[in-house]
Amino acid sequence: MRRSICKLTFAVTSLLLAGCDLSLDVPSPSSASPTGASAASAQNLSGMAPAEARKAFATVTRHVEPVAERSCREMTSGMNCDFLIQIDPNPKAPPNAYQSLDKSGRPVITFTQAMLAQIANRDELAFVMSHEAAHHIRGHLMRQQQNAVAGAVLLAGLASLAGGSAAEISNAQDIGASVGARSYSKNFELEADELGTLITHKAGYRPSVGIQFFYRLPDPGDRFLGTHPANPDRVRVVQQTIDRYGLN
Fold first, then answer.
1. Which of 38, 108, 137, 206 is deepest in the core (most CB within 10 A)?
2. Model confidence over 196-206: pLDDT tens digits?
3. CA-CA distance, 246 to 120, in Å (whole number)?
4. CA-CA distance, 213 to 205, in Å (whole number)?
């Protein structure tokens, strides 16, 4: 039993550290919005030299971070809202942007260098950044962890009742944790898209331009136990949010 519990803890911890990501598998307006942010966003990020792209990243971070932190404080209670937004130093890391927690519980948003090369402009960068911040604000990592634990316990219990061996029960835990973690992942992504749209706008960028990012993502479709919803569903949620609040 001790071995099985350790495997369950390891599986859940691995899921938690993985965070919520937005990856590429193949190559009301705020009065505090920064002046000129939208005008500057028309520049093409992917066509910039690395030093210029990093400067653009720093500029967008400076605009989005305080809005995300303010939204976090307003919408949550007792949550760590001190975001760290960074670029992965590994130049070989695949295109990805993800939210995680460090050892102290501080929310971390990480962009790989390959991901920055895929983002067309500052509006798209602001949208992806805001989307990842929204995952933390909505508590998706904790909810994912709880779902993983529930799934692992359920399937392990069923395997035990069926007279399964220790190895079979252990495998059932792994499968249950995976299924549990994925159960509501599509809903989490849509929730993050909705809140991310609002954060993007309040930071002075245009979600109507940021949404173009989805047209370049490989469409995951509506696969069973897929982690991301179909791109048209995501575009629809963003557009509905834009229309509901009269954004641009």
1. 137
2. 999 999 999 99
3. 24
4. 14
